[in-house]
Write a structure and sequence with these properties.
7 helices; alpha+beta; GMP Synthetase, Chain A, domain 3; Translation Initiation Factor IF3; single chain; about 250 residues; 3-stranded antiparallel β-sheet
């Protein structure tokens, strides 16, 4: 089949998602917008999609048509023809099941401490070391729990902004975020007095390098901020300040 001349009925940008991290759910959702026998074009920068998409199509009853290079060296364009009505009904049921499982999903982590001002966290196939709850030294062997919390927030937002801009067709060359925070009462954390040891203001500064439309990038950032699980959770407990600078 001449894929170069093929006009898809619908397009989906899967970004950097792999089939195990939500891409299949998105494909099923968008395939419902394609008429029976129509074609979905999937754009992806995740290398494992090349191996995972064809067998998934065979399993569910869609026809995998092939792939073409994308707009960048990392991107590929995949073409899938929607199966018959019976397949569509089965896919709609599978989509509902996928959404139910996604809503009920829990992230699990186990931590063990054996002294030495450090703990080891285990989650999925990862293990990482956490230092003391909060450190005031210039150098430590391991990051503190507060630093890991700020890193999780900034990482959530940086990856989210880069990926969302790519999906919106906006070229962003680099995203850098700085994060800083203090405690309401450090002495309460140290056990030297009674008080509030929680985080005070958390200040996030986002720097995005792009030549694209600034208003569009800011609109994407606003959406990323609203959809961030870490930011929206912290916003309920501390004062969050965020500033986006386009460079």
């Amino acid at each position: 089949m001449d894929l170069e001349g093929l006009l898809p009925d619908h397009r989906l940008d899967g970004g950097d998602l792999d089939c195990g991290s939500g891409l299949v759910l998105l494909i099923r959702e968008h395939m419902l917008r394609v008429p029976e026998g129509g074609v979905l074009e999937l754009r992806s920068r995740e290398r494992t999609v090349c191996d995972d998409l064809p067998p998934w199509c065979r399993m569910v009853g869609h026809e995998y048509l092939g792939q073409l290079p994308g707009a960048t060296a990392a991107e590929k364009r995949f073409f899938v023809r929607r199966g018959a009505a019976a397949v569509a009904q089965a896919e709609a049921a599978a989509l509902a099941d996928d959404k139910a499982r996604a809503r009920d999903y829990e992230w699990r982590l186990r931590v063990r401490s054996t002294g030495g001002m450090r703990s080891t966290a285990y989650c999925r196939n990862f293990a990482f070391t956490i230092g003391q709850p909060a450190s005031f030294e210039e150098k430590d062997e391991h990051p503190s729990a507060v630093e890991l919390l700020l890193g999780a927030l900034a990482g959530d937002l940086a990856t989210g902004l880069f990926t969302a801009c790519a999906r919106a067709g906006l070229q962003v060359d680099d995203v850098e975020i700085t994060a800083r925070a203090g405690l309401h009462d450090v002495l309460a954390h140290l056990g030297l007095e009674e008080g509030d040891p929680s985080l005070d203001a958390v200040v996030i500064k986002v720097f995005a390098s792009t030549m694209d439309d600034e208003a569009k990038v800011r609109a994407v950032w606003d959406d990323v901020w609203r959809r961030s699980p870490v930011a929206m959770t912290l916003a309920k407990a501390a004062r969050l300040e965020a500033q986006l600078t386009i460079i």
